[in-house]
Amino acid sequence: AIEAVEHVSPMDGWARAKALGQCQRRYQGPFSCMPIIHDDLRIAYMLESKAGSSTIREIIKPYYGPEKAKTTDWSDSYTWFTVVRDPLERSISSFFEEGRTCKDNDFHGLTVALLEEAKRRQSATADFKDRLFGWFESFITNLEQGRCMGSHSRIQWSYLPIPIRYMNINRSVDWVGNLWSLKHDWKQLGAYQKAKFGIEWKDLPRAQRVATDYKKGLLNVSSLPASLAQRICKIYEQDYCCFQLEVPSVCSVNCTAVLEKVAAVPPPPTPPPDPSRASIAAIEAVE
């Protein structure tokens, strides 16, 4: 959710994009992306789920995929951007969105229907919360073992265009916002767009999807044991390093080793699907 307080990240959107380039430079593994075009704002938004995409799509309506852009020049002259989210926060959000339904989870005697009923009643016993935590921890275990990784829980950086490999275009995102500091970051991007294109930038609307206090009380980052938080950070260590996101104090990430690992990922055995197409149906289905 976008908070009212104006957080300022220690790294700006341009620096995050530059850090991303270090991961992309030697990366040969699979990737994908979902570009959304807005011709009037001169932007191509590379959608990342569970990172404020509902709010951003509300700003840039009407939006469409590259096939409906008013000009082919979008790939050369428009500003390409995305917004990402701290993986610890995102792991909880993705659990409530889709991860809870993964068939490989240990539901600890609960069901999706019971969770929805507790949410409707805005009440939960200590036993219920303990069982929910076990359910979430089971989801994290599955992620560690390569299961339950859906569109909302995927690693963020590899869902962005890779230079040359994306439509034979030698560029990627120019700017990477951080959901935690989006109010500040969005103004930075707007100032750049206004200076470059002379356009009127749009202000951020109210957050389209905000976790309720009740849901936060059930499961939140501060309630996670340090050992579990470290496991989550390990799953998403590439996002921390490739975007140079601030690593939570409870986590330890060796970015030198991570970048070496990224560079060693082999190419996919068969050509992946063409990542240059984004259908409106797919975009609407994200969140």
Order of strands in the sheet with the most strands?
Answer: 1-2-3-4
Shape: globular
Largest sheet: 4 strands, mixed
Q: Classify the helix fraction into a percent range.
A: 40-55%
List SSEs in N-to-C order: HEEHHEHHHEHHHHHH
Mean pLDDT: 88
What oligomeric state best describes the polypeptide chains here? single chain
**Helix segment tally:** 12
Quantity of strands, as a count = 4
Structural class, please?
alpha/beta
- Residue share in β-strands: 5-15%
Q: Please give the radius of gyration in angstroms.
A: 19 Å
* Unreliable sequence segments: 1-6
**Span between N and C termini?**
13 Å
What's the helix and strand layout?
Blueprint: H1 13-25, E1 35-38, E2 43-46, H2 53-59, H3 74-77, E3 79-84, H4 87-97, H5 112-121, H6 126-144, E4 175-178, H7 182-197, H8 213-218, H9 226-235, H10 237-242, H11 255-263, H12 280-284
Parallel strand pairs: 2-3, 3-4
Antiparallel strand pairs: 1-2
Helix pairs in contact: 6-9
